[in-house]
Amino acid sequence: MTTATKVPVKPLGDRIVVQPLEAEQTTASGLVIPDTAKEKPQEGRVLAVGPGNWDEDGDKRIPLDVKEGDIVLYSKYGGTEVKYGGEEYLVLSARDVLAIIEK
């Protein structure tokens, strides 16, 4: 597994920063998909993870299940797209992450 690159965006609370992975360019049968017909990607690499939310008593943080470098599936329309330093990122709440992909 490759390590995540350092990003200038540090998430707060239960948020994570994800770099969406490129969508498929062709179908299984070899047809090229034009940019206008491509689906919004739902898979990405976690670049940064927030410290987690506080517990009910406010005594300690609840850590997140994901870590930097994980490949995750997330809600199709979840999160906020952010462009910073010429790069595009997606800032998601931990509840928008559906699964971690193990390769």
UniProtKB/TrEMBL annotation:
<dbReference type="InterPro" id="IPR020818">
    <property type="entry name" value="Chaperonin_GroES"/>
</dbReference>
<comment type="subunit">
    <text>Heptamer of 7 subunits arranged in a ring. Interacts with the chaperonin GroEL.</text>
</comment>
<comment type="similarity">
    <text>Belongs to the GroES chaperonin family.</text>
</comment>
<dbReference type="GO" id="GO:0051087">
    <property type="term" value="F:protein-folding chaperone binding"/>
</dbReference>
<dbReference type="GO" id="GO:0051082">
    <property type="term" value="F:unfolded protein binding"/>
</dbReference>
<keyword id="KW-0143">Chaperone</keyword>
<dbReference type="InterPro" id="IPR011032">
    <property type="entry name" value="GroES-like_sf"/>
</dbReference>
<protein>
    <recommendedName>
        <fullName>Co-chaperonin GroES</fullName>
    </recommendedName>
</protein>
<dbReference type="InterPro" id="IPR018369">
    <property type="entry name" value="Chaprnonin_Cpn10_CS"/>
</dbReference>
<dbReference type="Pfam" id="PF00166">
    <property type="entry name" value="Cpn10"/>
</dbReference>
<dbReference type="GO" id="GO:0044183">
    <property type="term" value="F:protein folding chaperone"/>
</dbReference>
<dbReference type="GO" id="GO:0046872">
    <property type="term" value="F:metal ion binding"/>
</dbReference>
<dbReference type="GO" id="GO:0005737">
    <property type="term" value="C:cytoplasm"/>
</dbReference>
<comment type="function">
    <text>Together with the chaperonin GroEL, plays an essential role in assisting protein folding. The GroEL-GroES system forms a nano-cage that allows encapsulation of the non-native substrate proteins and provides a physical environment optimized to promote and accelerate protein folding. GroES binds to the apical surface of the GroEL ring, thereby capping the opening of the GroEL channel.</text>
</comment>
<dbReference type="GO" id="GO:0005524">
    <property type="term" value="F:ATP binding"/>
</dbReference>
<dbReference type="InterPro" id="IPR037124">
    <property type="entry name" value="Chaperonin_GroES_sf"/>
</dbReference>
<keyword id="KW-0963">Cytoplasm</keyword>
